[in-house]
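Example S7 (structure tokens).
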């Protein structure tokens, strides 16, 4: 806890308990009298929302596990039974499945908040790194959970991802077989994925305790990014932060409920309503929306670099995309914490957010999808006319197939006129495909951390940072009270 304890046990019982196990003191100092920066905005309520998400997932998950059967023959049907026959099973299953998306939505806002306001900077490096560990554990948990309903996407998603391990030299294939519990995704895979999916949320719980502990040691950052100097900069956690958290939680729950009750399948993939079939590969294997940016990075590399195959390159980049977050506190060289006072960094940050969104889009598309092409496909044929004269004819189209069709038509006309076709040449236009787009986006993703933030921190001239939170608030209030004078 930051600062000395202000807890005074009132009743006899409280005094008795305080001498033996000071939990009331801990609660009081953490959630009642905890000095909270007075300038926090609503982005600081997402920690509370995330705590709610974690509890919701654990509680609904435990109930689901009472009815779920982790066997390849029964898993799909057991989920259907939960949805149709178990009292309120439809509700619990829907909350759990939708809850995963809500959890990630909240965590992304929480992380972007941290990035924008520089909450990862000293002395909160460890707080941030524990956050990254939580995020990684969330990704693994979500991936494992998605396999459990044993639908087509469950099965093929697991196949694609475990297959990526084979790209690692020497140890890759043994790791893949160890993960699968055999030579293919089968019953042993399902049972171990279920076991780990049940275990990991408790690891996340432990990490969250460390996260909040670290937070209470350093104190909270705030939108102005200046440290708390004295009492004038803070307000007690209760009622100020508590009420704000409750308002946010209420809105979040309303949105959550809208998905649970009206759009329970909107965020999932329809193919997962088809039972897993190892003999039938779906045309597009895609993960859930919250993992799509990483999927795009994984597939962005379609060329090998020396001994590094395309597959290994993609895997390294995907791991690196999370790894770079660990190094972030030392990569950002700026002395100013909040981007509120960093006009240039702010622009690059906005581009970064758009890039992450675009990576998500790219991850959901077929890698060969053409986004832009310079001109049409053109097939030019040469023929010798009845009198021996050379003749040319052309078929063009947006796709090669369309060009071929048009070409065949022209050729038929030429043949009907008595000419003999000799040869043909195809002109392929330049095509900008999803893979190339993903490569550009991946480049920016890494450049943002490895080049832009380190260089900008040294070169950028920041705005004037207020000395204290109280002064920042005072300046804002003065401007609001007398806007003309400010102008
Ligand atoms: C289960 C997931 C998580 C939970 C329950 C959680 C919980 C919290 C809570 C309660 C706070 C204080 C209130 C607030 O600032 O909103 C907080 C702050 C913070 N969290 Fe998390 N968090 C989670 C995941 C993450 C992740 C994934 C990251 C980053 C990778 C992260 C980074 C931070 C940072 C840097 C702060 C300090 C913010 C500041 O004071 O400016 N957290 N978290």
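Recovered sequence:
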């Amino acid at each position: 806890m930051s600062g000395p304890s202000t807890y005074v046990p009132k009743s006899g019982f409280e005094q008795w308990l305080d001498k033996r196990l000071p939990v009331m003191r801990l609660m009081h100092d953490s959630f009642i009298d905890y000095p909270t920066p007075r300038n926090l905005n609503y982005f600081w309520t997402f920690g509370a929302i995330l705590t709610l998400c974690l509890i919701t997932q654990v509680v609904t998950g435990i109930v689901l596990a009472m009815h779920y059967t982790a066997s390849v023959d029964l898993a799909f049907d057991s989920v259907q039974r939960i949805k149709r026959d178990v009292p309120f099973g439809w509700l619990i299953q829907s909350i759990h499945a939708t809850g995963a998306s809500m959890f990630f939505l909240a965590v992304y806002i929480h992380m972007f908040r941290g990035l924008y306001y520089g909450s990862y900077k000293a002395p909160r490096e460890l707080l941030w790194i524990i956050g990254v560990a939580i995020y990684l554990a969330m990704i693994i948990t979500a991936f494992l959970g998605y396999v459990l309903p044993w639908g087509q996407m469950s099965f093929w998603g697991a196949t694609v991802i475990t297959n990526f391990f084979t790209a690692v030299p020497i140890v890759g294939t043994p790791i893949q077989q160890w993960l699968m519990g055999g030579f293919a995704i089968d019953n042993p895979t399902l049972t171990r994925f279920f076991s780990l999916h049940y275990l990991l949320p408790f690891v996340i719980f432990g990490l969250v305790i460390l996260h909040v502990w670290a937070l209470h040691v350093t104190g909270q950052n705030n939108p102005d990014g200046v440290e708390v100097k004295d009492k004038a900069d803070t307000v007690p956690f209760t009622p100020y932060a508590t009420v704000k958290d409750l308002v946010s939680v209420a809105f979040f729950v309303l949105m959550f409920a809208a998905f649970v009750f009206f759009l329970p399948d909107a965020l999932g993939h329809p193919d997962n309503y088809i039972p897993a079939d190892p003999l039938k590969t779906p045309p597009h294997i895609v993960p859930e929306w919250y993992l799509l940016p990483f999927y795009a990075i994984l597939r962005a590399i379609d060329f090998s670099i020396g001994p590094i195959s395309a597959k290994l390159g993609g895997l390294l980049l995907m791991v690196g995309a999370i790894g770079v977050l660990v190094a972030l506190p030392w990569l950002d060289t700026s002395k100013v914490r909040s981007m509120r006072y960093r006009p240039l960094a702010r622009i690059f940050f906005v581009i970064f957010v758009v890039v992450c969104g675009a990576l998500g889009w790219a991850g959901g598309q077929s890698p060969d999808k053409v986004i832009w092409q310079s001109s049409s496909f053109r097939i030019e044929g040469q023929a010798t006319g009845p009198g021996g004269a050379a003749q040319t004819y052309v078929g063009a189209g947006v796709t090669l197939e369309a060009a071929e069709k048009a070409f065949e038509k022209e050729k038929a006309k030429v043949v009907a006129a008595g000419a003999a076709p000799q040869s043909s040449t195809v002109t392929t236009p330049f095509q900008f495909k999803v893979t190339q787009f993903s490569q550009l986006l991946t480049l920016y993703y890494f450049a943002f951390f490895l080049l832009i933030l380190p260089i900008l921190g040294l070169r950028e001239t920041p705005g004037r940072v207020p000395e204290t939170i109280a002064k920042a608030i005072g300046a804002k209030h003065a401007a609001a009270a007398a806007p003309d004078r400010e102008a």
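Notes on this example. DSSP finds 17 helices and seven strands in the chain.
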